[in-house]
Amino acid sequence: MALNINYVTDLQVLSSSYVLMRRFVMFSKAMPWFGMDIGGTLTKLVYFEPTDGQATDEEEAETLQIIRHYLTRNERYGKTGIRDVFLEMRNQSIGGRTGSLHFIRFPTLEMMSFIELAKVKNFQHLANSICATGGGAYKFENDFRKVRSTCSI
Predict the structure, then answer these.
(1) C-beta neighbour count of 99 within 10 angstroms
(2) What is the 3-state secondary structure (H, E, C) of 64-132?
């Protein structure tokens, strides 16, 4: 099945994930910083990758290394996940940190595969909260909670 993408519309939707993540950062200094917009057709994820070398502790440095290894070294994830490299924004300042914004998208039909991948890669131990918006944030809330019973959504 081909996925038709309107990049102007996608950029607008991705920016809503970015705004959500920025609001979260105002209340949480803990890394990593993700934002998700889980729509009916497409899920958009934005990830802020700090590049300023200011990890607050050894645990944060290790977490960032794990995420950097998987998320930012790939452009495709499975059969349907895509990192839009051309949308990457470098040298952005958020919450007193400098880094790059990465945008990843995949069909919402693949959400359970995404959640399973998070389990397999042990990503559930890397974040204690998930910032999500869109109808899918409610639809998949219990699935996220099953993966990480202590996370807030």
Answers:
(1) 22
(2) HHHHHHHHCCCCEECCCEEECHHHCEEEEEECCEEEEEEEEEEEHHHHHHHHHHHHHCCHHHCCCECCE
Q: Is the dihedral angle over the CA atoms 59, 61, 67, 69 positive or is it negative?
A: negative
Residue tagged 């998930």 (tokens)? 130
Closest by CA position to 45, among listed 114, 91, 97: 114
Residue 27 has pLDDT above 50, yes or no: no
Domain 7-146 class?
alpha beta
Counting every residue written for the chain, the total comes to 153
Residues with Cβ within 8 Å of residue 62, at least 6 apart in sequence: none
pTM of the model: 0.72
E strand or H helix at 15:
helix 7-27
Q: What percent of the chain has pLDDT over 70?
A: 71
